[in-house]
């Protein structure tokens, strides 16, 4: 019987490696849509949204590990998917209380920026809010 092909998923941030595992499938939310990558996929380079990276757990049909990423990009070649992001957290490492506090702070900044018509602060607050909500959503799965 032939050995099943696998791919390696590496997720790195400026602070170092956050995740490295082998799998038979990984799913990434890119800026142009969701993409599933299987072993021997053609090479690709894509920008990522603030969302989750899902990595199929070996030996299961429908269970995935979830890693929160704050954008970045994914590069895939030679059965290695490398995600480079400003920040990333495994589901089990997310502090939901801290994420909830970050969500509230971002919502307050967003409201102030709208009142003051401060476009730069508004954009930063929107990104902060998306990051906090992403972390909260993943922590609750």
Automatic annotation (TrEMBL):
Residues 7-88 form the ATP synthase F1 complex delta/epsilon subunit N-terminal domain. Residues 89-123 form a coiled coil. Keywords: ATP synthesis, Cell membrane, CF(1), Coiled coil, Hydrogen ion transport, Ion transport, Membrane, Transport. Residues 92-139 form the ATP synthase epsilon subunit C-terminal domain. Its main location: membrane. It is a peripheral membrane protein. GO terms for cellular component: plasma membrane; proton-transporting ATP synthase complex. InterPro entries: ATP_F1_dsu/esu_C_sf, ATP_synth_F1_dsu/esu, ATP_synth_F1_dsu/esu_N, ATP_synth_F1_esu_C, ATPsynth_dsu/esu_N. Gene3D superfamilies: ATP synthase delta/epsilon subunit, C-terminal domain, F0F1 ATP synthase delta/epsilon subunit, N-terminal. It is found in: Cell membrane. It comes from the Bacteria. GO terms for molecular function: ATP binding; proton-transporting ATP synthase activity, rotational mechanism. It holds the Pfam family ATP-synt_DE. NCBIfam families: ATP_synt_epsi, PRK00571.1-3. Belongs to the ATPase epsilon chain family. This is ATP synthase epsilon chain. It comes from Liquorilactobacillus sucicola DSM 21376 = JCM 15457.
